[in-house]
Amino acid sequence: MTTTEPIDVPTFGARARRVLLPLVLSFVTVIGTFGSAQGQPDRRQPDWFMVVLLLIGTVSLYWLRTHPVPVLWTTVATTLIYMLREYPWGPVILTFVIAVFTVIRLGHRAAGWAGLISLYVLHVGGRMVLGINQDGVYQVLLVGTCFCVLGFVAELFRAHRDRVMAAARTRKEEELRRAGEERLRIAQELHDVVAHHISLINVQASTALHLVDRQPEQAAPALSAIKDASKEALVELRSIVGILRQTDESAPRQPVAGLDHLDHLVTRTSRAGLEVHRIVHGEPRPLPTGLDRAAFRIIQESLTNVVRHAKATSATVRIQYGEQSLVLQIDDDGQSLTGPPKEGNGIGGMRERATALGGTLTTNRTPSGGLRITATLPL
Questions:
Q1: CA distance 287 to 258
Q2: Handedness of CA 196, 198, 203, 208 (dihedral sign)
Q3: How far is CA 189 from the centre of its chain?
Q4: Disulfide check for 207: which of 85, 142, 222, 315 has CB 3.0–4.6 Å away?
Q5: What is the mean pLDDT of each run of 10 residues along the chain (379 residues)?
Q6: How buried is residue 211: exposed, middle or buried, by Cβ count under 10 Å (0-12/13-18/19+)?
Q7: 107 conformational bin, left if phi > 0, alpha if psi -120 to 50, beta if neither
């Protein structure tokens, strides 16, 4: 596949470089050709037409980056006319070499090789047609070999350039992929934090409204729970938003939520009227941060779903520390239902967390008809 560089609006420095190359090369080729002509009495002596040919070729290099193929054929034409008129051998070939090298390096391989072959064939054929003194076979083959070497060297540079560009694209795609994964992770964190706290606030607010007229003294605990839940939600949200903003502000920080926060989660959820039992199998031990956070969020989201949807009075959280995996099982005593449970965004997010760690998450019914969520997270 042919690749070309995008044509951008040149900056002042780029325009200066584009002007500098033709100027320097014009000076070198004209002065160098007049100098080399002193030792070639058998060649045509320099004249105004030779200078025009040299300048046309060198000046055309100004457009080499924006119109590489037309510039290449311009240098082919000027170099061919120069050689067939038998002007002195000299730096005239530099213009053609630069044009071919750049054209192939930019990805116009067919045009570059066509220019090389055309100049070689037309030069040899033109000398035959015009009856110019023919070089020996050795000289003809040597010139052809030099042209081939030029083309292959340009190909090597083009291949290197393509590898560099491919590596840059790969790095860019990897950065975009990681950025996308990070956005998804933060979105899931926001969902879990907001859904959990808002659900608790909703339940407590309903309780407070129910009690405020009949038993106003018992509404205080519900209002206190609302205050605590909203405060925790604000702290967590500000922490997450601070990461998104990437500022150095001294925003409130708290340790990354993990299973060591489970007691607090159970207490907070119990205030919402859901009795939560925790059962631990095996010896608890420190877990990797990502695994610890995912386990906590899965339990948190499971309890949030119970509070919001299950119409349950109790839930059981089982944590089993195995040698190879951490198994989480959350059961509730919700409505007695049959058939596979319906899955929403919450369960989908939990499954994504488990899958990202190489684990699994399944949902099914308990013997009493409640919902059972089982997550297996490899250690």
A1: 9
A2: positive
A3: 22
A4: 222
A5: 46 71 87 84 85 90 88 90 85 88 86 86 80 64 76 82 85 84 73 68 67 65 69 67 55 60 80 81 84 86 77 85 88 68 71 85 82 87
A6: middle
A7: left
